[in-house]
Design a protein that fits this description.
Number of strands: 2
Low-confidence stretches: none
Order of helices and strands: EEHHHHH
Strand order of the largest sheet: 1-2
Strand content: under 5%
Number of helices: 5
Mean pLDDT: 87
Helix content: 40-55%
Distance between the termini: 33 Å
Radius of gyration: 16 Å
Oligomer: single chain
Largest sheet: 2 strands, antiparallel
Length: about 180
């Protein structure tokens, strides 16, 4: 049996800030936060995470090849968490789904170095409060922008939940990991 390899980040990491062994890559967004602006004409790490989500979510193992892979893995696990929340809450409309995902994006979440961080083995503990805060603020911005872009995939044009996306991927656990409910 031939196994397809997982997709990895191929973003240029030169001159990119690093926190907790994670590349804080540029993002196309209007969401306030520390991420450098990405070229609006090119895909950013969130586009890439959404594009590779279906294939990568099938993988139980993932070999980290660059610092951007940690950003990709976190985004992929957050997409899974969003799908789980939509599946569990069954919002009546896209507007309700938007509120639900916004709440998820901005709620308190664990970071490397915290006792409850579920993927701590893959990240470096922050060397101080500044590094921890840089990582947290970047990931909050990534979470919020990801939740905005995910809406059009998780909801049909008539505002109903896209059962193909939600039901097909709700049980899949990328790397057998989860950021939570």
């Amino acid at each position: 049996e031939v196994e397809m390899p997982a997709y990895h980040s191929s973003f240029d990491e030169a001159d990119v800030k690093i926190a907790c062994k994670t590349a804080l890559l540029p993002i196309k967004t209007n969401v306030k936060g520390p991420a450098p602006p990405a070229d609006p004409e090119k895909d950013d790490i969130i586009d890439y995470a959404l594009f590779t989500f279906k294939a990568n979510s099938l993988h139980k193992n993932f070999e980290f090849k660059c610092l951007g892979d940690r950003t990709l893995v976190y985004a992929t696990l957050f997409i899974s968490q969003c799908i789980g929340r939509i599946h569990k809450s069954k919002p009546a409309s896209k507007a309700d789904g938007k509120k639900l995902l916004y709440s998820l994006a901005v709620e308190e979440f664990s970071k490397p170095g915290d006792a409850g961080f579920p993927i701590s083995a893959f990240f470096e503990v922050p060397k101080g409060k500044d590094e921890a805060e840089s990582w947290r603020l970047y990931m909050r911005q990534l979470r919020e922008e990801t939740s905005i872009r995910l809406l059009d995939r998780l909801f049909n044009e008539d505002g109903t939940v896209n059962k193909f996306w939600v039901n097909q991927f709700v049980k899949r656990k990328f790397m057998n990991k989860s950021l939570g409910e």
